[in-house]
Every structure is written in C-alpha cells, then in structure tokens.
Amino acid sequence: MRAALFVASLACAAFACLSAAPAAAQETRAQFLDRCRAETLAASPGSDAWVDEACAGRWPGVTRANPMLDALLSLFVAGTPSALDPADIRARAAMVRWRSASEGELAGLAVETTRTPTTRLILNWSAMGQPVPYEPIEALRVRGASVDPIGCYAYGAGESNSVWRVAAPGHVPFALSVYRREAPTASALSHITVSADAERNIPTLDDLRAAEPDQDWMETCLR
C-alpha cells in the first residue's frame, strides 16, 4: 500500500501537479484595446481613423486562442523537465482529446506530436475563405508573457512564418513557431500552424537562417 502511494506521488509530481502552475496576469479587454491602440498608432502614424475598429476586431481571436495556449504552456511549467517524447506531451496536455499516440483534437484545432528532429506539439486550423480566427501572440501577451521575435519571413501578402521567444509567468522560456496564411479569395484556404519545441531548444536568428538558407529571415516580425 505504501509503495502504491509512493508511486502515485511520483506520478503527481511528474504530471498531475503541472496544473498547479502560478496564475498568469490577465489583461482585461479594455486594457488590451488601450495597449493595441497605442502600439498601432506608434507603428502606423495616421491610423486614427481605423485603429479602434482594428483592435476590437482582434480581441475575439485573443480569447479564442486560450485553449491553444493552455496546451502549449502545459509543456513548460517551471520546475518540470522537458517533454522528451510524444507520450510526455500527451500526459501533460491532458486537455487535448487524443485519438492516437500522435494525433488529437482541441476546440476545433487538429493537434499533432512529432519527433522531427526534436519533440514538438503542433496545432493546426484551416478553412476555406475565412480569416484566421486566432491571435496566439497577443493572447500570450494578454497573459503577461514577454513575446520577442527571433526571426520571420513572408511568402507574400498575407502569408508568413515566424519564430518567437516566449517567457510566460510560472513557465520556462520556449520557442514558438507560427505559420499563418490569410486566404486572398473566398475559394482559397486560410491556415495557421502554431508549434513549440517541447525539448525547450530556442534557436537564434543564425540557426534559423542556417536551417532555411533560401528564406529571407528578418529580425523584425509583424504580430
């Protein structure tokens, strides 16, 4: 009996107790709109006519990204080891409905784990002719995270790939990758892929350039 209790306590320490991470700071909608307005005006002088509507339009995407963030952040709780294989990810991201050893679903997102070459958690959404409904970078900032660009490049208007260093309260820093494509027409596909290196490797801009030398990696990324 004592042995069973000891094993259970180890299991809690490894997985179940991950949910006891410190609560992150949360911006209210009003605070987000004020920050968004100030940042937009600073980046785009003369945007007074449309800035309020643009920022209000982003807020639903911020709140809609919360399940995505819950799954991602579960891998990086401070004081816990790296997730080294898909089984670790499944145990920690318990909010995902796992259909198999590597695939699942979460709030309309297709979820996948891979080991190519490191262990990653990947969340996908796509739809025909619809705008991308998620704002993961701003949602992290609303939670009090520091989100700093490592590198990014664009394929053209409305399509980009970016990598960010995320430092969220109660969590170890990690690298977040975001591929985003806004459908240019009603018959085209919109897509977003958000993924994180569960082994907690954080690349530099030089690393990104070495991995994809044909892409024009830049230091400054649009949110």
Uncertain segments of ≥5 residues (pLDDT<50)? 1-23
Structural category is alpha+beta
Biggest sheet overview: 8 strands, antiparallel
Count of strand segments: 8
How many helices does DSSP assign? 7
Helix content: 25-40%
Strand arrangement across the biggest beta sheet: 1-2-3-4-8-7-6-5
Order of helices and strands: HHHHHEEEEHEEEEH
| Global outline | globular
The termini sit apart by 53 Å
Brief overview:
It is built from 7 helices and 8 strands, in the order αααααββββαββββα. It has 223 residues and is an alpha+beta fold.
What would your notes on this structure say?
- The chain has 223 residues and is α+β, with helices and mostly antiparallel strands.
- It is 32% helix and 27% strand.
- It has seven helices and eight strands, in the order H-H-H-H-H-E-E-E-E-H-E-E-E-E-H.
- Strands 1-2-3-4-8-7-6-5 form an eight-stranded antiparallel sheet.
- A hairpin with a 6-residue loop joins strand 6 and strand 7.
- Helix 2 crosses helix 3.
